[in-house]
Structure formats: C-alpha cells, structure tokens
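Researcher: We're teaching a course module on how sequence relates to structure. For the next exercise, students receive a sequence and then see the predicted structure as tokens, so they can try to spot secondary structure elements on their own. Here is the exercise chain.
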Amino acid sequence: MAGLDHAGFLAIEATEVALIIFGVWVVLRMKDHMVSGMLRSRVQDVRTDSISDKAFEQVVLPLSGMGSWAVVVSGALMSLHVLGINLAPLLTVGGISGIVVGLSAQAVLGNMVSGLNLYISRPFVAGERVDIMTGSGGKVLSAFVEEVSPMRTHLRDDHWRPYVIPNKVLAELIISNESRIIESNSVSFYNRMRSFQFTATIRYQDFDKLDGILKDYKRFMSECSLIDRTLPTHVNLDGFSNDGLKIHVHVHSNPSASRKFSSFKQEMLYNLGQCVKKSGADFAWKDHVEFTNGIQPGHPGNVGKDRTPELASMTAVAT
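Model: And here is the predicted structure for the students to work with:
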C-alpha cells in the first residue's frame, strides 16, 4: 500500500512538472508569435522607414530574448519546488559559487558582458563593414563582420584574412560602421547646399589688374560644376585695408560637392590664386599667409595696442 501511495505521489509530481513545462512552452510560443506580429506590422506600415524599423528591432529582440530566459528560469525554479527541493540552500551555494567563479573568470565574464552589450546596442551586425580605431584615432582594422558570438567577434578583411577579437577589447575601441552611412538621419545635411565665403587681399600696386582678376574668377564660377548657380554668387572688391585690396567671394556648393566640402573649399581658393597669378598680381603679405575661421586679420598698427597677431591676407568662412 505504501508503495502505491509513493507511486501516486511521484505521478502527481511528474504531472505538475509536465504542466509547468507545457506552460513555459505555451508562454514562449505566445511571446514569439506576438513579437513576430509586431515586427511584421512595422514592415507593412508604409509610414515607418528602415531606420525606425531597425531601431525598433534593436529594442524588441533583446527584450524578447531576456524574457525567454526569465520564463525558462522561472519554470525551472517552480519545477524544483514541486519536486521538494529546498531552494534556499541552493541559492546560497549558488551565490557563493558565483562570487568565486566571478573572481576567477573576470576576463571570461567581461567578454560575455561586452558581447551582451554588443548584442543589445548592435553597433554592427553580420555582413556590415566597419572601421575599428583606437581611442586616439589610430586605425586598427577595416573588415566585414562575419559573426558576433558571446565571447568574441569574427571579422574578415579585404584580403579575406580572418580576425577574431575578444568582445571586451572591441568594446573599448572606436567603431565606425560604413554600411550605415546612408541610413543616418543626419545624412540629409550633407545633401544640402552649403555656403562658403572668404576674403583675399592683394597688393595696392596691383589695382590696375583687379578688374581682370574679378572677370576671370566670375568666368570660373559660371563654368564650375561644383557651384550651385541657382543661388546668388558674388566676387567683388570689398574694401581697402592697411594690407591691400580686399576681394570678397561668396558661393554655395551643390549637394554632391557638399559631401566633399573640404575639396570644394580647396577648389574655390586654389582657382582664385590661379586667377591672381595669371594676371601677374600677388597677394599682400605673401611671406605670411594664414587662413582663419572668420577672424579678420590684424594690422601692423594694432600689434602694439591689443596684441593682435599679424595674420595673413586671406580669411575664409564656411557654413
């Protein structure tokens, strides 16, 4: 009789454990179905763009994974309680063991935590190309991401050489994701026109050559494909200074030139210099030419008064 009672008790425990496992499975399936439905609705919604969709996935998928683990761990603890196992000593031993293991495996845990951080933040995913740099900006590697595992990240460069970097090391480096340049909300700024204006000063003895310089530069501006000619462009005598004759230039780059704005500025400045040299003129203070960011050059008479340094004959301002 006692044997039958014991068998019945075991059958009841097994039934309860089976029900807990079934309940965990049902909850996980419902969660996965709900997450899939949310992602599908985001994709089908024409009002959302790819950037917001990916941001939504970066939040929902990690939360879904953590929710799955929470459900599984809760089910395991409930099953142990049904089987009559006292969880208090187990949790105590587990806590002490966790401290010991944590102290002896800090590097491993650091890689795992960094891997979890990479998984949640997703600065890159498999298939994307990244530039990895040190904190000072020194380039370490340019490669494609092959796999992000819990402990390390696998990459392959343009010569198909494989690289494996511990996640803890990777988390301390600067990562530039080339694959996401066109997805940035700020890219539209680089597709708009940008204004560039600068002032150049030529010598007073070249006054008779000024008209030729202005005409040549106007001709250059009318032919240059980098300039947005739907907006006003100006090149004119802007005034007289102690240094010489001031020529002011104001142009706007077109969208393609805005993406390489430094090259655009160089082209504008270089061609003005070419026009000046072509006419046989020269810049004032030619032995000391220095570009400033909107700061007007000081004059020799001001050095003793306000300690303004003697700057050059050309200043440039970009917006």
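Model: If you want an answer key for the exercise: The beta strands are 129-133, 139-148, 152-157, 162-166, 174-177, 194-202, 234-240, 245-253, 314-318. The radius of gyration is 34 Å.
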